[in-house]
Amino acid sequence: MPDAGFLLLINVSIGVLFAASFVGFSRQNGFKLGYWCAAGFVAAALTPLAESFAETLPAKLVSSLSYGFLLTALSCIFIGVWQHYHVARARMPTLVFSFTSILFHQFVLLEAPRDGALHAIGYQLSFAVLSFASAIAIIAGRRRRSLDLAVSAIFALSGIQFLIKSWLAYQLTTGTSTQTYIYSQYALYSQTAGAILSLSLGVGLLALVVSEVYGTRLDRAFRDSLSGLLGRDAFIEAATHGEAIDGSWRQGCFLLADLDRFKTVNDTFGHAAGDMVISTFGNLLLEVVPSRSLCGRFGGEEFAVLLPEIELAQAREIAHEVAARLEHHKFAFAPETHFTVSIGITVFRHREQFSTVLKRADVALYRAKRLGRNRHEIDLPDQGVGREERRELAKNVA
Predict the structure, then answer these.
(1) How far apart are CA 185 and CA 100, in angstroms?
(2) For the whole prediction, is pTM greater than 0.85?
(3) For residue range 70-95, what is the model confidence (pLDDT) as tens digits?
(4) Are 282 and 226 in contact (CB under 8 A)?
């Protein structure tokens, strides 16, 4: 077996093993990026497998299969990466790009000389584009942890490698046919570089999937079981050491909400009814606030919401919407009773201490309670509310 043929088998094995790993880690959580990566690595495994039949199958068929499988692999991974970092779907644009690339391969590249510049550049160009697009999708995405940047760098290196391969294919030649390709010096380089980058990309993407899967499990462990929101400690940890105030969020708003006369709800309708109100309000928050927000239950009937990159006017609209939905919600245990909430709103600056933000929202919440409940009030950083006023506000809250 020639050296390139041995490397073909290694690349097949890499693809199959990574595909199985992606499925194994994703199936319990339904993690979509893992499934897209699994599909991509299965297709990637079929690419060298198709090339291994170069001596027995028609040349154009081998070339078409090899090209189509690798294009499918990179397309699947790109779709998964894009949807993971940007939420929006990318299937249709990617399908259009892939279909156009396949048509170009079938009707242009297959008719061009294999050792010519058109074939060398045209064959690798689509692969490079998808690799660079994946790298850019991560860089422009909603999070930029060290792991994300590392995976992005691997995609960028992969794109560069495809461009280098197009140059080497022209300089070294890939052989006059697919039958002679497997014995060429270019095939040895191509399969070696492919194995290294496939392994690197597989490890990087698998690490990303594992971190997300276990992050989801950890998130569930720190969630309040009744409301479905983060507990107080988990919320503060995420707000101060995650992406929030101390991280990439430059500004935003913070809401502190308290269900009005909640003790009366428990005393009148029972604790089961109170639990239902808390659970419903938690669901309402998740329905109304933007997906990037942090929502937590601070204990009892008190809730907190951190709204990144949200202006004060938008925060007020969100507070109004949440309060209106709660007031108009009909509970089975008291269909004619309207439950209300008071909300304190403030804004936060980048790297501002969370304790300072919380104090301002607390002052605004007390003011909303004092002024009649079922309303929201605002306390801004430059209002200079002092300790005496805060104490006075607290005295007036019954």
Answers:
(1) 30
(2) no
(3) 999 999 999 999 988 876 677 899 99
(4) yes
